[in-house]
Amino acid sequence: MSQLQYIKLSDEQVRARKRRNIAIALGLLAFIALVYMVTVSRMHANNQARQAAEEAALLTLERADPALPAPVQPDAGAPQTENIQP
Q1: Which phi and psi angles does 64 have, rounded to 5°?
Q2: CA 72 to the chain's CA centroid
């Protein structure tokens, strides 16, 4: 059997590889930060759009039949629970 031979890198090649690895890591971190920021901003915009749609629906409902009782607004401090019927 023959002995495995490994390539010996020079000091310059090791430094170049290290710089390349750091550049790849920084690029990956920048991409992750970009995806996170876009996700948070989209969620915020969707939340605002949902609230505006709910307010518009309530106004439409009130205009349709003013005799209806006012909708109950959830308490801001109370946890949100759903009534699930079995």
Answers
A1: -70, -40
A2: 30
